Each structure stands twice: as structure tokens, then as C-alpha cells.
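Reopening: C-alpha cells for the guanosine-5'-monophosphate complex, inputs below.
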Amino acid sequence: MHVENEIKLGFKDVMIRPKRSTLKSRSQVSLERTYTFRNSKRTWTGVPIIAANMDTVGTFEAAQVMAEYKMLTAVHKHYSVEQWQSFLNDIDKSLLPHVMVSTGTSEADYEKLKQILRLDVGLEFVCIDVANGYSEHFVEFLRRVRAEFQQITIVAGNVVTGEMAEELLLSGADIVKVGIGPGSVCTTRVKTGVGYPQVSATIECADAAHGLNGHVISDGGCSCPGDVSKAFGAGADFVMLGGMLAGHDESGGELIEEGGKQFKLFYGMSSDTAMGKYHGGVANYRASEGKTVKVPYRGALATTLMDIQGGVRSTCTYVGAAALKELSKRTTFIRVQEQENRVFSS
Ligand code: 5GP
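Re-run output (same inputs, fresh job):
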């Protein structure tokens, strides 16, 4: 047994220190970034915010809106090949660089992934997602996908440490997805005791990945636009959001009416709800590691996206970053023991 004594930081433990700035208005701040990926060699330009590959968030409807805002969607893996076919028939092809195809690591997942990618050469991204990115089987799967699809940009995760981020990049990933346990409907830390505070995980993985010309996604734990800015400040090239994008018209699931209020169901992908829906229940050798919650209905996704963009732009003006690209260089985190004033919070 070994104890690391350095305290690791989450979003609630830090704030960004303001810096002298010559920017006059947040409208001057560009949120677009251009990246060239280490293995696929492809270049991508857009606003690097990603809707999570959860079936209530990463829907085709969300993908359309996210792409219009130049953001990305990791479309969840539960759509059939036929559903992909009709989505691809309908969507404007110029939006496809903003769509990721998600997959698990089973043989059936692999066959389905190949079929989906064959539908349209405009699909550039694959997101290989497992709860535990430390497994050997996962790394072998990643190698296999890289060998077959040289020009596809591969996202792989999730991990939280620099050495595993490096291993994924060296095994064929272009972008490493970072986060174990921070998610809004995640119970991994409760069920297993495993995890890593998200700001430190992002800082450490970004540092390791950038040394190999790789990129990272900070995945999970953002509860407000300020957290999205903190993730970028910590060195994330992309930020993935679940809960913040749930509850909208474009989110999966029915509207629920209760006590005169409207809600939408939102649940973790390894919750009882998801496992019941896709696997006929929770297998008896494992525990559910996700919650099911009702989130207040929030209308159009576009409104929330504009709110997030406004927040991140404003962060940039506070630290004198004329573009999102400069935000992490201009970020000094201060460790804190308070966040917002909650006198008027319900
Ligand atoms: P959020 O933005 O809601 O805080 O976090 C979203 C992320 O939570 C997802 O991208 C995914 O990595 C993670 N997640 C989604 N469902 C589950 C689940 O059932 N269990 C766990 N441990 N994590 C989940």
C-alpha cells in the first residue's frame, strides 16, 4: 500500500485568478480551435465542446444542433445501423466533422462500428468508451480499430493518469478521454472508492498527452459554465458534458409531468435504468454505477449552448485571453474553500 500526499483538486477546489487584460468585449473572444491529430493526421476546426455519448444526451437531434454551433456530439452507441443510415441521409454533410460514432469493445460492437463507418466516408471520429480504460482488452481493441481505420480520429477512454494517457496515444488513440467518477449521475466513487478529482486528472493527463502531440477531453463533473472554463484552463483540448446538456427538447426520453412541472429523465449509462433498457437488467456479478434522476425541462438546447459560450468567453476576458487557445496559458488556479454565494439558492 502506498499513499500519495499531494492533494488532488476538483472544480470545487479552485477558481481562476483574474489578470490584466486589453480586451474590450467578450464578443472579441474566439472559441474556435483548430487541431491536427497525432495518428489520423486529420485537422478539425470548431468549438471544442462535446455532448456525451449517453442515450439521453448524445442523440441525433442534439448532434444536429451541436454541429450548428460548431460543437461535437459523441452519438450514443445504441442506435441501429438503419437509424444511422437515415440520419446520414438527412444531415447536411458539412456538419459530419462534428459527429462522433461511439462504440464499446465487444465483437458485436466492432462489427456494428465497421458497418456504420462504411455508410459515409464523411464520418471522421470514433469514440471508444469504457468505464475502465486501464483494461488490457480495451487497449487491444483500440489497436485493432487503429489498424483497420488509419484515417479515423480515435477518442479513447476513460483514464485519469498520465502514464495511461500516454499508453493509449501510443496504441493508436488521437484523443484521450479523462475522467473516472466525476459525472453528475455517476456512483463509481461510492460503489468502488476509485476516482481522481477532475481538475488534477485533466492537468496531469493533458501534460502527458501534449508531450506526445496528443489531445485530451475532460469528461464529466462540469455543473456550470465556470467549470467548463476551469477544464479548459486545466489544459483540456475538449470538454465533454452530460448533465449540463440533459433535459432539453433534443435530449432523449419522454417529457414527464409532475405537480404541474415538466421533467426529463436522465440516467447514467451503467445505471439500473440503462442496463434494464439495453441488457435486460443488471448482471448479478456487477453493481449499478449510475443514478437515475429527473431534470427540470429546459427547452431548446441552443439556449444552453449560448449560455455556456457566453460564460467561457467572459472567463477569457477576465484573464486577457483573446482566444480560447490562450486560456490555459493565462490560467492561474487559486485553491479555495468557497465557491458561489448560495444565500438565494433553493
Ligand atoms: P456529467 O457531465 O453529467 O457530469 O458527466 C458525464 C459523464 O459521466 C459521461 O460522459 C460519462 O463519462 C460519465 N457517465 C455516464 N454514465 C455513467 C454511469 O452510469 N456511471 C459512471 N460511472 N459514469 C457515467
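The two ends are 43 Å apart (CA to CA). The mean pLDDT is 96. Marking as resolved unless the reporter disagrees.
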